[in-house]
């Protein structure tokens, strides 16, 4: 996790960070509900942060649009610099892939809280093969989203976290092979907040702990049921156990045979 300290939202006098959020377009009811539900993972991870959903778009810190195919967001309080009430500060493009929509929402809300892309961390263990990267990506996107570096003094950051929701998928051939570094490897998309995502966002916003019901993407194994134990002898309704009971009762319950000779 890598967070720009200059872009963190200020807390109220009670220590709570309240961010008002609205949607620019009418309709899209199910998508609005989906965004509120999934974005709640950040609130669970950081209880001092509260998203205030409002229909008053003129009084929002963050304005969300569902138009277009791309997903993007202003970084943290940069959203407040955009005074055009008709302009989105976050866009959430549509995809029919449920897991990918989830990733986009968590990723863009991470940006909205001040997080930057994980590979921009000072602790990222590789350098880029610029030509390979630019060959595979549009020039502007490559330089703005991947090859860009930030001044360390403005950052709160963890060790490089390949589980972070803020990590872009990357190909191993985009990364330089250096004998002193780990061998380059493909980096895949993540679909949940990692432990460090939660920990360092709490650190940035001075939150103490996550909510108890905050989901853990790496749950512990469930306890296994106790082994089945064959029950003991079943009393015969006429009284006593096994001895003297008719053969049909012993056959039914698997009890010992009584020699009737």
Give a description of the structure:
This protein has 261 residues and is of the alpha/beta class. The chain has one domain: Collagenase (Catalytic Domain) (3-Layer(aba) Sandwich). It has 6 helices and 7 strands. Strands 3-2-4-6-5 form a 5-stranded mixed β-sheet, with helices on one face. Strand 2, helix 1 and strand 3 form a beta-alpha-beta unit. Helix 1 (29-45) crosses helix 2 (98-112). The longest helix has 17 residues, at 29-45. The model is unreliable at 138-143, 213-223 and 234-245 (pLDDT under 50).
Properties at a glance:
two-stranded antiparallel ribbon; Collagenase (Catalytic Domain); 261 residues; five-stranded mixed β-sheet; alpha/beta; single chain; 25% helix
Distance between the termini: 83 Å
Instruction: Give the tally of β-strands.
Output: 7
* CATH level-four homologous superfamily name: Collagenase (Catalytic Domain)
Q: What do we call the CATH topology?
A: Collagenase (Catalytic Domain)
Number of helices: 6
Number of separate structural domains? 1
Q: Give the amount of beta strand, in percent.
A: 5-15%
Low-confidence stretches: 138-143, 213-223, 234-245
Please give the share of residues in helix: 10-25%
The average pLDDT value, as a whole number, equals: 80
- So what's the overall shape? globular
H/E element sequence:
EEHEEEEHHHEHH
Structural class by helix and strand composition: alpha/beta
Largest sheet: 5 strands, mixed
Provide the spatial order of strands within the biggest beta sheet: 3-2-4-6-5
Provide the CATH top-level class: Alpha Beta
GO biological process, one term: proteolysis
InterPro entries: MetalloPept_cat_dom_sf, Peptidase_M12A
Organism: Penicillium polonicum
Biased composition (Pro residues): 215-234
């Amino acid at each position: 996790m890598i967070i720009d300290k200059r872009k963190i939202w200020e807390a109220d006098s009670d220590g709570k960070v309240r961010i008002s959020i609205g949607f620019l377009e009418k309709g899209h009811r199910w998508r609005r509900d989906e965004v509120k539900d999934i974005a709640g993972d950040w609130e669970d991870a950081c209880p001092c942060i509260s998203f205030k959903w409002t229909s008053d778009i003129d009084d929002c810190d963050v304005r969300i649009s569902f138009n277009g195919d791309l997903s993007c967001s202003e970084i943290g309080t940069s959203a407040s610099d955009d005074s055009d009430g008709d302009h989105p500060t976050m866009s959430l493009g549509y995809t029919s892939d449920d897991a990918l929509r989830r990733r986009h929402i968590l990723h863009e809300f991470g940006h909205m809280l001040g997080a930057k892309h994980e590979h921009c961390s000072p602790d990222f263990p590789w350098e880029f093969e610029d030509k390979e990267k630019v060959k595979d990506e549009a020039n502007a996107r490559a330089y703005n989203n991947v090859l860009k570096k930030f001044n360390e003094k403005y950052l709160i950051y963890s060790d490089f976290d390949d589980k972070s929701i803020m990590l872009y998928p990357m190909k191993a051939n985009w990364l330089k092979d250096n004998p002193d570094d780990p061998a380059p490897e493909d980096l895949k998309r993540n679909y949940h907040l990692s432990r460090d995502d939660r920990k360092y966002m709490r650190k940035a916003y001075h939150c103490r702990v996550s909510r108890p019901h905050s989901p853990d993407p790496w749950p512990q194994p469930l306890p296994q049921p106790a082994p089945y134990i064959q029950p003991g002898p079943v009393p015969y309704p006429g009284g006593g156990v096994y001895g003297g009971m008719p053969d049909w009762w012993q056959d039914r319950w698997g009890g010992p045979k009584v020699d009737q000779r």
